[in-house]
């Protein structure tokens, strides 16, 4: 039996292959095959008529080539055949579709020979990613493909599928916009899709019987088959392109959630069944390390592992016209690899949005000084990190349903909220000793910070508020939901929203719904009418952010120059001014009242114009002042402005 401990091997001695032709390359006249397997003594290539079962119709021995590769050329047209590789390395390993395959059959067990030209939708050549924006101009909306349309109330026909995104004029039972029309109506700029590469936890023969978020990668370079109309063909590729095309036509960018930090299988992964041990880190005792918390961690610092990530991302960006990537557990990856990714994507198309989770789920054998963690974001080239400081400051500890934050009743954590307001940058008015998990600013510029209060992980925001405020009324819970959104969408940095939070999405209190049924995970579109006031408020906040550049400053120096916090401390209250920022009023005053009582404030003069109060937000004004005394209702935001717009 094979020894799966590799602490005695120096992987740096393995040859590096620079070529871009790994995998299976199709032409009508021949099939060219190449695989990197430097420790193999033999490699077989097998062709099948079907994606599952049956005997191979052809078995070919590959020829050892240069730099650790094995190659094969077969004359003839093999389009529509399925294939596998088998490597001999201390005995025969399992058959796999290979690490580099771009099309697979049902459940991803065999690769599919295909002509890439067959996967382009009509007019695909005229589809283009959105024009690059400064990251702080983006408003990101995190969404799971299946959640989006699977509910009976969605009004969409292609339930749980990529094609649901191509449906227009869909309606809820209450005749409100759903689907892509809802996204346009809401006003977000980018959709962040939970994993859409091929993952192994859903049986594509009967996809309705299981559910998964998809953080268990199987084939990195092929779309997931359960989201397609036919997982046995190139439909999964073409239909994902149609999704991208439809969102682009709606003026919405597409960000792909990528999970290179670990694979769904460890010993049985395509990597380990091709080059045993190379693509994974090991502990000092030779066992597989587990910084991902999922059984293994990808060794991104090794030359061919780095190349794999770069080549894979460039393929998705170019072939599918994507606008950005979100890196799951980015802290597992090394800084050099992440910066190489930025450089390579810039060469392909400058300005793609890149951000990730700046932490790990467990200990890693790689020294933290080399890791792409939050506190080292300053060493990353235009790659942002999620601001979990702001998340927990607003609603309480993410893993404890009963804990509270600023919007749901906790006081004495206002400094952590201020830290989020300035996009995790240094500001002289913040006392960092009172920012619980960050004793100093970790962002150099605001576009390095993704501000959020909830995402697919853990409780939805509304569930968290209900669990932590058992005596709160429905009206109070709605106000807390709005207040959290107001803080996210007026703060510096990149705002990030969890799909459905705009109408108080619930998962019935489930804190980890990664494999819960549709009844838990689906977006319940009937909530759009039930929480119409919350939805309208989100719309207005998004419009406000787009209209007022002072909420989207592009440099930390601008924030320190123009944004000034009130010196009058009051528990459960946050107030600050933005003064003399170009393109907006001479003075903007924001007051957030997280108390359950009316807040009375004396202003310097009475010549302020109110542009936000309770549910009303309008840059043209929602009312003037009769005197210097103002009252801010409980659990709400007030914004006042004065002075001509400064151009």
Automatic annotation (TrEMBL):
UniProt GO BP: carbohydrate metabolic process
Domain of life: Bacteria
SUPFAM superfamilies the record matches: (Trans)glycosidases, E set domains
InterPro entries in the cross-refs: GH (IPR017853), GH13_cat_dom (IPR006047), Glyco_hydro_13_N (IPR004193), Glyco_hydro_b (IPR013780), Ig-like_fold (IPR013783), Ig_E-set (IPR014756), pulA_all-beta (IPR049117), PulA_typeI (IPR011840)
Positions of the Glycosyl hydrolase family 13 catalytic domain: 142-545
Residues in coiled coil: none
GO molecular function, one term: hydrolase activity, hydrolyzing O-glycosyl compounds
Family to which the UniProt record says this protein belongs: Belongs to the glycosyl hydrolase 13 family.
Protein name as annotated: Pullulanase
Organism: Sunxiuqinia elliptica
